[in-house]
Amino acid sequence: MTDSIPAQSRAHEIAIESLLAEDRTFPPPAAFAAQANVQDPAIYERAAADLEGFWAEEAATLDWFKPWDRVLDWEPPFAKWFEGGQLNVSVNCLDRHVAAGKGERVAFYWEGEPGDRRVLTYADLLAEVCRCANALRELGVGRGDRVAIYMPMIPEMPIAMLACTRIGAPHTVVFGGFSAEALSDRLNDSAAKVVVTADGGFRRGKPSGLKVNVDAALATAPSVEKVLVARRTGQDVTMAEGRDVWWDDLVARQAATSEPERMESEDMLYLLYTSGTTAKPKGILHTTAGYLLGVATTHRYVFDVKPDDVYWCAADAGWVTGHSYIVYGPLANGTTGVLYEGTPDFPDPGRWWEIVARYGVTILYTAPTAIRAHMKWGPRHADAHDLSSLRLLGSVGEPINPEAWIWYHRHIGGERCPIVDTWWQTETGGIMIAPLPGLTTTKPGSATRPFPGVEADVVDERGEPVPPGEGGYLVLKKPWPAMLRGIYGDPERYASTYWSRYPGMYFPGDGARRDTDGDYWLMGRVDDVMNVSGHRLSTTEIESALVSDERVAEAAVVGRPDDLTGEAIFAFVIAKGDIETSEALGQELRQHVAARIGPIARPKTVMFTPDLPKTRSGKIMRRLLRDIAADRPLGDTTTLADAAVVDTIRDASRAGKDEE
Ligand code: WTA
Predict the structure, then answer these.
(1) pLDDT digit string, tens, across residues 621-632
(2) Residues 631, 509 within the same domain
(3) I want to staple 450 with a disulfide (CB 3.0 to 4.6 A). Which of 175, 268, 412, 454 is the partner?
(4) Is residue 4 part of a domain?
(5) Is the C-beta atom of 316 inside 6 A of ligand 1?
(6) Is the C-beta atom of 321 inside 6 A of ligand 1?
(7) Count: domains in the chain
């Protein structure tokens, strides 16, 4: 059955329709609120009234070689923060804590996938970073030279990142899971001089090669002069004479002190590539002072971190979440963190909970995709471990569906931990919309309020604010310290991608609505919005409705071209482990969505699939699902975590028939 309701006539065209209502609320527990880093709601008014004053006050908590002359120079879309100031990121993350007598505090509890462990104190980490910095200098890396880092999640990865910051060489971290081709593209775009890598890394118990991909990538990346190779798996690798050097040989013999460069506030700190709509990846450019300030401040306030917390951001450091909230924010705040190399279910789905119990993790930050995976495996794995040390939970990467939020709250947080759902992007550098956990009443599925100093809005096609409850486009109306400064080598693409749709406003590409309390509900990427009979529907709400059926583990919906309705909703559904899928179940799920959010949102087709195509950071690649649904050739698949998945789904889709 197909719905074809004409678009309702309204005063203006509805940008995105909002159908799902969620009314559960969770005020901060009194005991949590009483000890929180932010207890006074006046912080919001203070930052709104004096943006520069607010950030200047926060900036005073960093260590500067030379104070800034001017807080902000804003010539849209180009911002400069703290011009005239000089500082070094590694000094802020390491030296100043050691100098303050905190050298024996643990910086990282590291755990390898096979079960090997290392503990690095701040003093240890400083010494290692200095050795690596000296080694990079010996390899000819100077201030301003780009260094690519292509490593597994071993301590040498943050060490290499921090070493780059010490000598003023911007790094570009490339996910260890990316192919030689993807690596080569990034090496060329950044004209990297040195690559830091490892022989390989462990994934699901097996060594997988990294150096071998570097060798292949270098055939087409002539800028690279040297390769520094850490030993991780012990697998055989080819070392090119005069080009490749072992970490153990070069780094180990260096001095444990190293003079930090005095960097200018606006010097480039790093490039991080994200995929754009065209095949050419975008090198998102972040600079020194504003970025460090943004991530340190948001980390302190959103995660409420204290000196005795054990904080675990269970992401890969090769993703922006790892840059900002494993490495720079936490270390700037002198936090004790956990670093884990492997997958959540190796050797079994209890692995994460074992780690939480072993180190007494107090704050856990992860992605909805991981939470849904744990839901699928069942709560018994978490139940088998003592998770009572946890006091705060975080979520990032995509909208968290209310069902996953409630599961996280109940089974991981023991119903006592506030959840901070944090909306931000590689481009924003740090968290932009999130609760302050001592102040904000949370709602499952809402990222709640813009961080102090962030001015957001939800607008229609013309850039006019939409009324509460109506969906539209998220925009940001003021500059912020950690904002991207550009796309490397392409200022025009920067201006056109982010600043041209609504002049003077930053357009992140996400749909959102604001409720009557002013809380924000993210609705997914606007590129994924479906147009069904003139109604613009967000993927997020329909997926949330599907996952609210207890038999569904995960769902992704896309629009498929349809003669009658323009687009028809095609749902890919992963059923929970023990559920038998059938056409009847597909029908029930279609009805469930119709009952939950309205007939217009009823999927025309439900297809059961064992897996979904995702990026390495866990985002569903709906673009590929659209190709599969329409039976078109697939677009760019280089950022896919597991390339075989699309073939499996495509075969199933061609074999199956529509459940109409
Ligand atoms: C999505 C990850 C809803 C959003 C830090 C954004 C979210 C994109 C959330 C950026 C959230 C991230 N709620 N959507 N809490 N967090 N997103 O660059 O679409 O990997 O634009 O940065 O992820 O992804 P990126």
Answers:
(1) 999 999 999 988
(2) no
(3) 454
(4) yes
(5) no
(6) yes
(7) 2
